[in-house]
Amino acid sequence: MMIEPIVKDLLEAGVHFGHQTHRWNPKMRRYIYAQKNGIYILDLEKTARGLSEAREFLRKVAAEGGPILFVGTKRQAQPIVAEEARRCGQFYVSVRWLGGLLTNFQTVRKSIARLKELTSWKEDGTLDRMKKKEAARAGKELGKLEKVLSGIQDMPRLPKAIYIIDAKREATAIAEAIRLGIPVVSLVDTNSDPDPISYVIPGNDDAIRSIKLVTGLLANSILEGHQQYLAGQAEVAAKQAADRQAQEDAETAEAAPAPEPTLAIDEVEAIIPDAALKTKIELDESRKKKLPKAKPPIPGPEKGPAGG
Q1: Measured between alpha carbons, how far is 47 from 190 in angstroms, rounded to an integer?
Q2: How buried is residue 231: exposed, middle or buried, by Cβ count under 10 Å (0-12/13-18/19+)?
Q3: How far apart are CA 15 and CA 211, in angstroms?
Q4: 91: which strand partners?
Q5: Do 42 and 118 share a domain, yes or no?
Q6: Strand ordering across the sheet containing 32-36
C-alpha cells in the first residue's frame, strides 16, 4: 500500500497532533517529529507505515476467520468504535472494559447467556407477565448487561487480535491480551507506552476525525479480509458438495444389479450337449418323413385333329 497518499489524509485529520510536552512518555520519542507551541508533533511517515502494517495484519486475521475485538471506551471514541466494528462484522467494547473479559472468558460467557435469556423474556412478553417488582429487577439487570456486553454477545471465542484506542486508558485490556498472547493493534498517543503494543499506530487518540479516519481504514482492511474468508468458505463448500455427489453416484452404481449376460449363437451351440443336438437333428428328419409327397398331375385325353 502506498504511504504518501495516506500522509495527506492523516495530516488533514490532525493525526499528527500529540499531547503537551509536559505530558509525554519518553518511550514515544522515536515517533515524535518535533514540538511546536508546547505540543509534540508526530512523524506522519512513521504513522503511515505503522498503519499500513496494522491493516495488513488485520486483513490476514480476518481472511483466516479470526474474530477481532475493537476497544474504545472514551466518550469521543464510543460511537465510532461501535459503528465501524459492526460495519466489518466484528465485536466491540465501547462503554466499560469488564475486568477479566479475556482472562476469565468462560465466566463472561455465562453473563452473555443471561443477557440473551433476559432479552428473549423482553421480546416474548415474559417480563410483562411477571410481578411488578420482579420485572423491574430483571429490567435493571438487562440494562446493565446490555451496557457492557452488547458488543460481544455474539463473539464465539477469544479474539485473534484486539484494536485499541488510547493505550494508556485501556491498560487493563492490553495486559489481559498480552497474558493470553493476543496481538494488540493500537492508536498510541505521545503520553502512552508503545512497548506492549504489537502494531503501533502513533497518532492523536483524542480528536474525533483522527479516530474516525484510522478506525475506518482498519475496518476497510478487515472487511476485505472477511470477504476473502467467505469466498474461501464457499469454494470449500462447493468442493465438498461435489465430492459427496461423486460418492453417492459411486454407491448407487455399486448397488445397482448387474445386467444378465447375453450369449451369441456360436456360444449357445458350443454349450449345447451333443445328445441334445443329436435329438434335435433326428426330430427334424422325422418331420421331413411325415410330410405328404406331392402327386404328379393326371394327364387329360388327347384330342385329335378336327375332321373335315
Answers
A1: 12
A2: exposed
A3: 8
A4: 69
A5: no
A6: 17-20, 39-42, 32-36
- For every residue of 183-198, DSSP letters joined together read -EEEEE-TTS--TT-S
pTM: 0.76
Final residue of a structural domain among 231, 263, 278: 231
The SS3 assignment for 166 reads coil
pLDDT tens for each residue of the chain, 308 residues long: 455 779 999 999 999 999 999 999 999 999 999 999 999 999 999 999 999 999 999 999 999 999 999 999 999 999 999 999 999 999 999 999 999 999 999 999 999 999 999 989 888 888 888 888 888 898 898 989 988 999 999 998 999 999 999 999 999 999 999 999 999 999 999 999 999 999 999 999 999 999 999 999 999 999 999 999 999 888 888 888 888 888 887 887 777 776 666 655 555 556 555 555 555 556 566 565 555 555 556 655 555 555 43
Q: Quickly list DSSP for 10-70.
A: HHHTTTTEEEETTS--GGGGGGEEEEETTEEEE-HHHHHHHHHHHHHHHHHHHHTT--EEE
Query: Does residue 148 sit within a domain?
Result: yes
CATH code: domain of residue 227:
3.40.50.10490
- For β-strands 17-20 and 39-42, DSSP reports them as antiparallel
CA 238, distance to chain mean position in Å, is: 14
CATH number, domain at 133?
1.10.287.610
Domain count, the chain: 2
